[in-house]
Amino acid sequence: MTVELGIIEGFYGPLWSWEDRKQLVTTLEPHGYQFYLYAPKADAFLRRRWAEPHPQETGAKMADFARFCRKHGVRFGVGLSPFEVFNHFDDEARSALAAKLAFLDEIGVQELAILFDDMRSDTPDLAARQADIVHWVRDRTTVQQLSVCPSYYSDDPVLDRVFGERPRDYLTTLGELLDPAVRVFWTGEEVCSREVTPGHLKRIGRALGRKPVLWDNYPVNDGDRMSRHLHLRGFTGRPANNAAWLSGHAINPALQPILSAIPAITLADSYRLGPEYQYGQAFRHASREVLGGDLAEQVLTDLLTLQDAGLHRISEEKKQALLGIYRGFSNAGAGEICRWLNGDYQVTDEMVQTQ
Q1: Which H helix or E strand runs over 67?
Q2: In a domain, 316, yes or no
Q3: How confident is the model at residue 121 (pLDDT cuts 50, 70, 90)?
Q4: What was the pLDDT predicted at 323?
Q5: Is-contact 334 326, C-beta < 8 A?
Q6: pTM of the shown model
Q7: DSSP 143
């Protein structure tokens, strides 16, 4: 059994270029990736400034990317985070949201995800209010697929500590009230789950009354700590038989678009190969495809340093030596490694708090 694979560009930190996005779609198309959700936290007009219209130039580029995705058989979507709208869904908010929906329809969005994650609530009937908003959106958009990310999108207690204690029976209530055609994102037992099992997915599916879409926070590496590491290794802890309990599996990519393709390809391999999958071998094959043989061998040699040690544990002498090595490769993936070594991808706490 297979599952629909996709990309959710949902990280904090610097924005990718539109060419970066097109390259990732092209690279992953042969591996069965079927949808792409544009939802970077740094696009303020999808998040904290959602009620304002997108700049004209950005809108034109989004429309161009939508056409590009359709040409490649990929469903293009947008993740809209109407920031804390469930606290004040008044006439002004409705008017602004209607205008945003009209804009997204105009540029050719095929999937719309309403993202209620990473924001505080002071609304007691949170699930009911969010379901009402999603249904209000459903009645005013022409998209083929509507999805939602709950405020509490994982069992992880960190969400309760940061955003307030989740309401009693929140997930079950949301599932009962939502139109069955609306897909629901879920990250697993943790925000960044080390393992996702059929047993867990069965329980969440029962609570939601539908199979969830796994929002997989690997290989994402945003945040102050994670951005100091490159996430390159093949996927583990995602057995192929999860497919029976999922309606989709989307990965939140790393800050490095080219390097993100390596683990993304291994995820497709894990579903394709099932019990024959070997994450180390899958990494070797994927890195050669993305980087070419010589650079892939060099990355394998340095994997412990790049992924496990991280920037804060690399001496200046070692860093300069690595820069000297990777500057010798013409592949753009080597350029991403050099920029990471130079600290260009560092995500600060301020970014996370303000994006």
Answers
A1: helix 56-71
A2: no
A3: confident
A4: 98
A5: yes
A6: 0.96
A7: -
pLDDT value at residue 271: 97
pLDDT at 353: 83
Asked if residue 310 belongs to a domain, the reply is no
- Provide the number of structural domains found in the chain: 1
Distances (CA, A) of 306 to 200, 259, 319: 31, 12, 10
Q: In CATH, what number is assigned to the domain containing residue 206?
A: 3.20.20.80
Quick check: is 282 in a domain?
A: yes
pLDDT at position 34: 97
What is the pLDDT, as a whole number, of residue 173? 97
Q: Which residues pair with 251 in a beta bridge?
A: 7, 216
Q: Residue 125 has which token pair?
A: 């009937």
Q: Produce one character per residue of 149-160: b if its CB has 16 or more CB atoms within 10 Å, e if not.
A: bbbbbbbbeebe
What average pLDDT score do residues 302-315 get? 95
Predicted pLDDT at 105: 96
Half-sphere exposure of 16 (CA within 13 A, CB side): 26
- Is the separation of the CB atoms in 19 and 10 below 8 Å? no
Res 122 pLDDT > 80: no
Q: Which residues pair with 201 in a beta bridge?
A: none
- Mean pLDDT along residues 29-55: 95
Task: Give me the residue label for tokens 């993936």.
Answer: 333
Q: What is the dihedral of CA 251, 255, 257, 260, to 10 degrees?
A: -50
- Report the candidate in 183, 196, 198 with the shortest Cα–Cα distance to residue 238: 196
Chain centroid to Cα 310, Å, comes to 22
User: Does residue 84 register a pLDDT over 80?
Assistant: no
CA distance 253 to 7: 7
Residue 33 DSSP symbol? E
Q: What is the pLDDT of residue 1?
A: 67
Asked whether the beta carbons of 79 and 113 are under 8 A apart, the reply is yes
**Structural domain range at position 102:** 5-286
341 within domain boundaries: no
d(CA 76, CA 10): 14
